[in-house]
Amino acid sequence: NSHSSSSEEETKEKHVVSAAPVDNSDNAGNEIVEDIFDPQDVAGDEKELRAPICCILGHVDAGKTKLLDCIRGTNVQGREAGGITQQIGATYLPAENIRDRTSLKAETAIKVPGLLVIDTPGHESFSKMRSRGLSMCDIAVVVVDITKGLEKQTVESLHLLRCHNVSFIVALNKVDRLYGWKECTNAPIVEALKKQSDDVKSEYKWRLTKVVTEFKENGFNTAPYYENNKKKKVVNIVPTSAESGEGVPDLLLLLVRWLPDIITDKLAYDDTIECTVLEVNEHKDLGTTVDVVLINGVLRQGDQVIVCTKQGPVTTIIRDLLTPHPMKELKAKGCI
């Protein structure tokens, strides 16, 4: 049972993260934003937490893989056939990389060791893969194109989320497509919005209201995270740009700062083995490899494992364990 990591070279784009403070004319909104960016932690008995597993969902071309590329500083989307994801991909984002990516203050605690992100295909023919990805995740990010609103696979993803009882955050992507948008590379979204013209702000509010209405029609109450005082009941919307990085710090910090407070018990580390198989591959140097997501427990070389297959249970010994490099994607090739 082993991981096989992608050998393709990743591009080394340099993202300059804005360290400017976030201000908001609305005091309530200001407090909400500062809550995830500033240290507010109270010392106490804390459980050992594992990394949350986050599944990226949305309609084809909504910008799911591009958003992940922006976070990682890679170009996976550019290498995919037609620019469309056709496999499930997994990326581990360590806490220290998230801290660097968001310019989080050194004294601000990140309670989890990192974040494991599962990227799923958005095309209609890959609905089983999306369901497979959701079966193991703690939280989902639903990527919505702000210029198009909810589309067919978005609605299907919402149905899957409801069936699996998985909470989610909305990444309202492509804000840079708003006419006249002034680029604020990697800035928190409230800061970026403050620098826009009245016309851009007006179009943003109109499109945001339209998306909120569409979610309401599908049974979900949503609100921009910086105005949301009921995060346990109302779904957070984070406006983002996968091109220039606006809103990406907000999205990452919601996942590693807000989420652990909401589902602490679910993220509590357990010694009991909990492991999900993504794919089985034949590697030219290693033979049969099994790509897995280890949720809880420990796997060791020499352990005996039993894997369920269509032909029945298969018992084998772990000969080697390989893990992908942090911030690089492991692609589970082929149909699942």
TrEMBL record:
One of its GO terms (molecular function) is translation initiation factor activity. PROSITE patterns: G_TR_2 (PS51722). Coiled coil: none annotated. One of its GO terms (cellular component) is mitochondrion. Residues 49-266 form the Tr-type G domain. The keyword Nucleotide-binding applies. Residues 1-29 are annotated as: Disordered. Belongs to the TRAFAC class translation factor GTPase superfamily. Classic translation factor GTPase family. IF-2 subfamily. This is Tr-type G domain-containing protein. It comes from Aegilops tauschii subsp. strangulata.
